[in-house]
Each structure stands twice: as C-alpha cells, then as structure tokens.
Amino acid sequence: MKTQRLINPKRKVDLSIVIVNYNTGKFIVKCLDFIRKNPPHGSFEIFVVDNNSKDYSVEILKKHYPEVKLIENSSNFGFSYANNQAIVRSRGRYILVLNPDTVVTKGAIDVMIDFMDKNSDVGVGGAKLLNFDGSIQYSCRRFPTVFYVFFGRQSVFTKFLPYNRISREYLMMDEDYSKNIETDWVFGASMILRREALEEVGIFDEDYFIFVEDTDLCYRMRKKGWKVYFIANAIIYHCLGVTREHFWKTTLLNHNLGMFKFFKKHYNLNLFIQILLSVGLSLRLLLLVILKTTTSFLRG
Predict the structure, then answer these.
(1) Do 30 and 22 contact (CB within 8 A), yes or no?
(2) What is the per-residue pLDDT across 127-185, written as a single tens digit (0 to 9) for each?
(3) Angstrom distance (rounded) from CA 7 to CA 59
(4) Residues near 47 by beta carbon (within 8 Å), at least 6 away in sequence
(5) Which domain covers residue 233, as residue numbers?
(6) Mean pLDDT, residues 5-15 taken together
(7) Does 102 map to a domain?
(8) pLDDT digits (tens, 9 = 90+) for 35-51
(9) Which of 23, 81, 126, 176 is the most buried (most CB within 10 A)?
C-alpha cells in the first residue's frame, strides 16, 4: 500500500465529497445536480478526480460546476489512487466517497453525518443504496472467505441459483434493511469515512485498481477496532453495474485479481490453498467471460 498521508487542515469543513470520474458524463452531471438540490446543511467541499476521460465530462465540469475542485489525471490510474488524490487534499471532518452514477435524496447526507456524530466508534458508514425502481441493493456484506468468494453477486452459482443459502448469508440478503446494521464492509459507491479513523488506519490501498478496495479498507478499520455500519435512513439511488457493463472484461479481471490480493494480504494461507484459490478464481473468471460472451452474442 502506498504511503500517502492525510494533511491536517487548519480550516476544516464538515464534509468532503469525493467523486471519481471516468467517461461518466451523463451520470456525473445528474449526481452533481442532486447534490446541489439536496446539499448537506453544514460546510462542505466537492472534489472530482478525472481519470483521463475521453467524453465531454471535463469540459462540462469546468463550465457549469465552478464549485467543484477538479483534479485531472493524464491517465486512468484506477479508483483507489484517484480517491486518495482527493482524500489527502480534503479538509472534511468526514469524507463521503460517492460514485458518479448515484443520486442523493433530500437529507441523506445529513443523516450520514448525524449518525457518525452520534457514534464516535464508527469509522465507516454506508448509505442505503436503491435501484431506480426502488428495490434494495444488498450493499453490506460479510467478509469474503475462500468458500464465500464463489457465491458473490457476480458468481455463476449466484446467477443460476440466486437464492441459495450460502449466497443469502454472504450477501446478507435476509437482513432487515429498515434498520441500521453493524456489518463487515459496505459498498464504496457511497461510504462516509471518519477522518480520525483514516489517520489511524490509512487510506485506500492502491494495489487495488478497481474493486475490493472498499472491502480492504473496512477490514483494516475493523482490525483497528473501528465499527462499520449500514445507515438505513440515508437513501441514495445507484445505477448498479454501469462500469461493469461498459468495461466488463476489465472489471471482471480486476475483481478477481482484487480478491486474490485481499486473501493473500489479510489471510495466512499456505501455498497449497493459494494455488487452489488461484485456480478457482481463474475458473470463475473463465466461466463468467463465457457466460457474458454467450449472453452478448444471443442478444446481438
């Protein structure tokens, strides 16, 4: 993990909102418009880190969103690195990492800040993410294990047997999402981070290009004694799967690589288990590629 550290700002704000953009022009405009419409009551700043987008998004940001602190990268350095670029420059007591394909509802950000203010032992809070049809996204999870990893949302087992007992347990599908839930980790699509916790634990691990960096950060938080919570009344709509659909080969590869890095980093696996895991993840990746290619062929 890189050793970037947070600055200790003399003039703090209540919240720093960090959004990473990569060719998501139509989404990020809507995201920023709804932050304008439903802003937090306290002081805040907004960072957008652009990973060398080739669409029109940067030009629109410069022209129509002067309040945004724009960081332009010369290449796509990945989700973790881009978030860290803004986090180390931020001044917020809290940092809200937000995907560009999200829409914040009225009061959602204030609910997250209020929850963190009232629960000083919580290092990470995750919003309630909904699909645009109002259905729930299972955005809090148990930590992956060598067994669980083959029953995730993108696994072949879950696709063909979506309500099997193991997937339901791993994805926490049977929880009561009308209540706050202490959990292992929450989606990085919308997670509020306590500055004090980040100063102790560290920021995102840049060895993860995209995916699993949120799992890794929450794991490190929990090891240091910080709690991770799903915040039920903080409602944010999320267009799940935008990145996966547009760049599915890259995302599938990076998700599987990320899982392997996570296991190797945090679990004391012997060489035999590492080999089995590597083979298993490779087979999982191959099956998903075949399934995706076949589905695309049949549709086209």
Answers:
(1) no
(2) 999 999 999 999 999 999 877 777 766 666 666 677 788 888 989 999 999 999 999 99
(3) 29
(4) 16, 17, 18, 19, 68, 69, 70, 71, 86, 89, 90
(5) 13-242
(6) 81
(7) yes
(8) 999 999 999 999 999 99
(9) 126
CA distance 230 to 142: 12
Domain total in the chain: 1
Strand 44-50 versus strand 13-21 pairing type: parallel
Strands 68-72 and 44-50: parallel
Helix (H, G, I), strand (E, B) or coil at 260: helix
- Distance, CA of 83 to CA of 78 (rounded, Å): 9
Quote the pTM value.
0.88
Mean pLDDT of the region 261-265? 91
- CATH number of the domain that 21 lies in? 3.90.550.10
Does 179 reside within a domain?
A: yes
Structure tokens that stand for 22 in this block: 């990569």
Residue 250 in domain: no
How far apart CA 164 and CA 113 sit, in angstroms, is 36
* Contact (Cβ atoms closer than 8 angstroms) between residue 109 and residue 36: no
Q: Which of 58, 125, 132 is nearest to 102 (CA)?
A: 132
User: Of the candidates 101, 124, 117, which has an alpha carbon nearest to the alpha carbon of residue 203?
Assistant: 124
Nearest to 166 by CA among 150, 178, 182: 150
Give domain status of residue 282, yes or no.
no
At 155 the pLDDT is 64
Provide the H-helix boundaries in the chain. 25-37, 57-64, 79-87, 108-118, 156-160, 165-170, 195-201, 213-223, 242-246, 248-266, 271-299
CA dist 54 and 105 (Å) reads 29
